[in-house]
Design a protein that fits this description.
Blueprint lengths: L1 E6 L2 E7 L2 H11 L14 E6 L11 E4 L2 E4 L2 E4 L7 E8 L2 E8 L3 H9 L1 H23 L3 E3 L1 E6 L2 E6 L6 H10 L3 E4 L3 E3 L3 E4 L4 E2 L5 E2 L5 H11 L10 E3 L1
Parallel strand pairs: 2-3, 3-8
Antiparallel strand pairs: 1-2, 4-5, 5-6, 6-7, 7-8, 9-13, 10-11, 10-12, 13-14, 14-17, 15-16
Helix pairs in contact: 2-3
């Protein structure tokens, strides 16, 4: 299965050979997954392999616990206790991320019993963290904000969790505004790029992700209250 996701100002192409992990990635994109476009090169390439074998770390040196650097890139044995082993390597203008799911019994049990937690960690490890890191290489700093544009112009909302940012964003989208993100973004000081992720309002309603541009605005108007979408968009401030 192959798809493309715009997030943190990066173009992430995904090649996933495991059905259930593909479903997890589609859920994480919350409506933002599209077909790859061969004429536009991705900046981040994620390959999820079906192999359960450990990555070859011959010739590598230990960087820290669970991480080794070698000729084939940086290898994480168990990234963020997710059960995913990662091999990460910058290749010219592109970041290559190869993932294999090979959890031990403890991690597998935790993933089964704490499913929502596992989904959060897995989508962070596979998509968000690589995109955020590569965005940093491109001069964009992370921001804990909600970002949207309305008739009043671009708006950035900063504040601690639980103060109502998600509820306000969902309400604004239902009124025709377009959101770049609900929770996390990156910025180069001129543009704000949303990080794609599913969000929830204070009522627990699922909030799906809006595409950017005219199509995103149309989707927002059709979504109605409590079913807005955010993430992956771009907002000039």
């Amino acid at each position: 299965m192959r798809g493309r996701l715009h997030t943190a100002g990066e173009i992430v192409d995904i090649d996933c050979r495991v059905d259930w992990i593909w479903s997890l990635l589609v859920e994480a994109a919350a409506g933002g997954m599209t077909a790859p476009v061969d004429s536009v090169a991705p900046t981040v390439q994620l390959v999820v392999e079906s192999s359960r074998q450990r990555f070859d770390d011959a010739g590598s040196v230990r960087v820290t616990r669970g991480a080794r650097l070698g000729p084939t890139g940086l290898i994480f044995a168990d990234a963020c206790a997710s059960g995913f082993s990662l091999r990460i390597k910058p290749c010219a203008d592109q970041l290559l991320v190869i993932a294999r799911y090979r959890p031990d019994a403890k991690i597998r049990a935790a993933a089964t019993l704490l499913r929502s937690r596992f989904h959060l960690i897995a989508r962070s490890v596979l998509v968000q963290y690589p995109a955020l890191w590569w965005a940093g290489v491109h001069g964009r700093a992370p921001l804990h904000v909600s970002a949207l544009t309305s008739d009043a112009g671009p708006i950035l909302l900063a504040g601690p969790g639980g103060v109502g940012k998600s509820t306000l964003v969902a309400r604004e989208i239902s009124a025709g505004s377009v959101a770049a993100c609900d929770n996390l973004a990156v910025s180069d000081g001129v543009d704000v790029f949303g990080v794609a992720e599913p969000i929830r309002t204070t009522t627990g309603a699922r909030v799906a992700m809006l595409a950017t541009g005219a199509r995103g605005a149309a989707n927002a108007r059709r979504a109605g209250a409590g079913r807005a979408t955010t993430g992956g968009g771009r907002l000039r401030v």
